[in-house]
Batch of 3 targets.
Target 1
Amino acid sequence: MMQNYYFYIYPDINGNYEVHTENCYYLPSELNRQYIGRYSSCQAAIIAAQIAYPDKKFDGCYHCGVLSKHLTYNLARLVQILQCHIVLNHTPRNLIA
């Protein structure tokens, strides 16, 4: 799903600019954010921001960026388990978290 991404115009204590989705509860006010563009993931938005602003370092918001990474990882694990179950008609123990 494509979403609009923005970054907070002030760096955090580590010097990183935090990237947020348009729906993030922690999205900065319009005066304190810069539009990056529409992307399918936080990772893609961060890459685009790095290209557009090579002098800045970016990272994803813990609430809307990192959680989306965990969701993607868990979804990939679920697909892997289901494929194994269909092919072998069982789920190997090492795939169950």
Target 2
Amino acid sequence: MTDGVLTNMLIGPQISPADADLAARLTALRVAIAGAAASAGRTEESITLIAVSKGQAAGRVRQVCSLGVHHVGESYLREALAKRAALAGLPLTWHFIG
């Protein structure tokens, strides 16, 4: 094993800058939701975050799911059907939005 491979095994999988940016934006969004919920006298758990996948590839939805988002909204039936088929094994709840 080279030192680089060993280091990767010890510190975990590498995260691409795009994935790190997505995770950071999702964290910021969750903080904002928690603040808004508290301001309204609600709990964060009483709010459902729905990620809109319109125009996004199934792989991007898979990334969002891996970050803990399990509700997905789609506004195009063809895209929704294709993504649901491609992501059938994931714990997703689909919403048709318009």
Target 3
Amino acid sequence: MNALLVMLEQASRDKPVTRERIRGMFRVSDRAAREMIERLRDSGYPVIGTSDTRGYWIAKNEEELLMFLRNYTAKAKTIQDRADKMCQTFYQERMDV
């Protein structure tokens, strides 16, 4: 994990580390590469990843961190809203029977 952290610290928005590079460097599956990134985030490292850059890097400043956190928390809210709607629909259909 230390090698990945070093890679990410040296990366930037302009030169992110792609999952393909992580897979090749560590000889892991795509899923394992995503899990490696999540473990770093779970440990508190501000690993930035955006769809437009197609890669990852450690936040270099507060602006990068806050931009990522806004998007990250918005995704979480969207997922929670969908889950709530599924539960509502599931139970409503059973009450209508």
